């Protein structure tokens, strides 16, 4: 037994054997995975979160939200407000690809832009309850599936609507104001468009906060 122990001790202390042990140990360590390169039509969720964030802020209406400028463009000048439906402003979130086409005039003469994500501010002079205001409005087509939720720590209502597109909506009031905000995610139900804009919608909802005017 002593002789066997001496042979084992010499083998472990042998430089060649020790090098073999070290090499084997390193080879067994987990290796970092290669980065996934996103295509123009798909945004991996991990990439979206890790990218540098930008903030859109409205001092007039007292709110802000974050978005990923590498993939999205925020535009508050494309659509003109209409006093007829009490719409005060529209803030559109476009993919870089759609924004480029809009700037180039690709949609001139077309009545509707592509499905996207929007943040709209409406007047509610009668201070109607949120669900009642939606149901008496002509802005949402067929509405259904009203559910209580919260956004920025405030009570809100999530609901579905059907019109030109299938839409997910969240409506809530602006504190100390009779105005309301509706965040809408319009879906086409084909291609990668919905998956991309769903990420923008989730990011707006999750980072939306009210700020001092």
What does this protein structure show overall?
- Helices cover 29% and strands 31% of the residues.
- The protein is α+β, with helices and mostly antiparallel strands and 213 residues long.
- A seven-stranded antiparallel sheet has the order 3-4-5-9-8-7-6.
- A hairpin with a 2-residue loop joins strand 6 and strand 7 (154-162).
- It starts with a helix and ends with a strand.
- Mean pLDDT is 80; it is low at 1-49.
Main beta-sheet annotation: 7 strands, antiparallel
Structural class designation? alpha+beta
C-alpha-based Rg, rounded: 27 Å
**Low-confidence sequence ranges:** 1-49
Order the strands across the largest sheet as they lie in space. 3-4-5-9-8-7-6
Topology order in helix (H) and strand (E) letters: HHHEEEEHEHEEEEHE
Number of helices: 6
What is the average per-residue confidence, as pLDDT, rounded to a whole number? 80
User: In whole angstroms, how far apart are the ends?
Assistant: 84 Å
What shape does the CA trace take?
globular
- Portion of residues in beta strands equals 25-35%
Strand count: 10
Helix content: 25-40%
Topology (SSEs and partners):
Blueprint: H1 2-13, H2 15-27, H3 45-50, E1 54-58, E2 63-67, E3 72-75, E4 87-95, H4 96-103, E5 117-122, H5 130-136, E6 142-151, E7 154-162, E8 166-173, E9 180-187, H6 193-207, E10 209-210
Antiparallel strand pairs: 1-2, 2-10, 3-4, 4-5, 5-9, 6-7, 7-8, 8-9
């Amino acid at each position: 037994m002593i002789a066997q122990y001496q042979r084992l001790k010499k083998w472990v202390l042998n430089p060649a054997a020790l090098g073999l042990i070290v090499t084997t140990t390193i080879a067994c360590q987990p290796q970092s995975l290669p980065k996934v390169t996103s295509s123009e039509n798909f945004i991996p969720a991990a990439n979206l979160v890790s990218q540098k964030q930008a903030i859109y802020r409205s001092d007039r209406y007292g709110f802000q939200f974050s978005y990923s400028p590498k993939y999205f463009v925020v535009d508050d000048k494309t659509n003109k407000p209409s006093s007829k439906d009490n719409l005060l402003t529209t803030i559109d979130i476009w993919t870089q690809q759609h924004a480029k086409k809009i700037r180039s005039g690709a949609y001139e003469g077309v009545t509707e832009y592509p499905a996207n994500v929007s943040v709209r501010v409406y007047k509610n002079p009668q201070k109607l309850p949120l669900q009642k205001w939606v149901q008496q409005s002509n802005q949402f087509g067929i509405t259904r599936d009203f559910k209580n939720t919260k956004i920025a720590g405030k009570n809100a209502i999530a609901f579905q609507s059907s019109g030109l597109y299938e839409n997910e909506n969240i409506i809530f009031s602006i504190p100390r104001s009779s105005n309301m905000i509706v965040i809408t995610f319009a879906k086409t139900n084909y291609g990668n468009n919905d998956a991309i804009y769903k990420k923008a919608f989730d990011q707006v909802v999750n980072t939306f906060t009210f700020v001092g005017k």
